[in-house]
Amino acid sequence: MPSALDTPQGAAELAESLLPPLGNRWLHTQAVAARAREASTAVSEADRDLLVAAAWLHDIGYAPELRDTGFHPLDGARHLESLGAPARLVQLVAHHSGAVYEAEQRGLSAELAVYEREDSPVLDALIFADMTTGPAGQSFDFDTRIDEILVRYEPGSEVHNAISKARPYLRGAVERTRDRMAHQPM
Question: Where is the HD domain (predicted)?
């Protein structure tokens, strides 16, 4: 078991122990972590490892052995909490990519609200990494990624409804991250 879950190495080890059997989910996770490394210039130096660790762990709640509610941000956060992971890491996983919108669709808002959501460059950069990476690790622009999700999930489904509602919020996070990356000194 990794000893430092909020480090990129420790987070990668935990993700690798859970996600490879899920095929494309593992490819997506690896690419999101790489994208988070690229976007790390958009956050303070002190938060860069946390961002990359959260990227490695953002989808661990999809692992069958962790499935409880069927809502992967919540299931992943609960698992990390059970391992004694730092609160910020747990919160970032719980709230990645507009999870609050899907929690509402699933009737899990109260359960998700246990985990405080930070509105920060770190959460924005995590959203950026996830919302510009396709389901098999492809590099997508934001609109292509959102459209891909909306095609993959049936209209009327929790995910389809949540992503439709979350689109402006997610776009804002992606744009803020791009702006922060563009304004970093070389």
Answer: 27-109
